[in-house]
Amino acid sequence: MQEAVQNKAHQSILARDLALNFGGVRAVDGMSISLQRGELLGLIGPNGAGKTTLFNMLAGAFRPQSGSILINGAEAAARPASARIGLGLGRTFQIPKPFPEMTVLENVLTGAQGQAGEGLFANFLQLGKVAAQERAALEKARGLLEFVTLTHLAQEPARVLSGGQRKLLELARILMADPSIILLDEPAAGVNPALLEFIMSRVLDLNAQGKSILLIEHNMDMITRLCSRVVVMAQGKFLTEGKPQDVSRNEAVVEAYLGGAA
């Protein structure tokens, strides 16, 4: 992997030597990873390997105790999660948590960034600008609901959605912010096969649009079909990387999974 951590100009994410302890447990131990611009990269490893902790450091939920994170060339390790979207990074969660009593459309609209109407005085002094931005946001949200095929549920409360539909809603919501980088946390978990095929097609569409995507997933069929490169973690550390087909046959990877790395 270390040869991939080279040219900063071609990196959406460049993280080096990240480390984080929880009590006396070293959850991530000197982990480095790079996501090339326009790449669809898989991140795999046995349960407890540190994948989600790494994701949370990249997204800003956890601050690394050491190491550096560059997002689109900007140092981000000390920035909070709320600042990462301004650098072009959006993330989903393994278990989506929409606002249950808000409509599906309203949930998507919460992802809009930089709205003049969020300021008190703009609602009195810039009424035209506020109204224009609200119209544009509404049109964009409706377009994103069409992209994830939830248009027919736009006015329904989000609590009626299935688990798979909630994952699609969460994807639409982060797309409202126009991220250039998307971190996807187990989009296949708990999703029926038919909907999973659709989710994979949307992920490929986003990647074809130029989005850089880092994907945590246990579904190796999905990883193999979507990703050209896979990074493997075990015991909080980098283990290996390569093409999905090669990685799945790697003896160290097989041992890590069968050995139940913590």
Explain this structure to me?
The structure is a single chain. By secondary structure, the protein is an alpha/beta fold. The chain is 35% helix and 24% strand. The chain contains ten helices and ten strands. It has a six-stranded mixed sheet, sandwiched between helices. A four-stranded antiparallel sheet has the order 2-1-4-5, covered by helices on one side. Helix 5 crosses helix 6. The longest helix has 21 residues. It is globular. The N terminus is likely disordered.
| N/C terminus separation | 22 Å
Q: What is the H/E string?
A: EEEHEEHEHHHHEHEHEEHH
Beta content comes to 15-25%
Averaging pLDDT over every residue, what do you get?
Answer: 90
The computed structural class is: alpha/beta
Largest sheet: 6 strands, mixed
Low-confidence stretches are 1-6
Going across the biggest sheet, name each strand in turn.
6-7-8-3-9-10
Shape: globular
Please tally the helical runs, counting DSSP H or I stretches of 4 or more residues.
Answer: 10
Question: How much helix, percentage-wise, in residues?
Answer: 25-40%
Cα-atom Rg, whole angstroms?
Answer: 19 Å
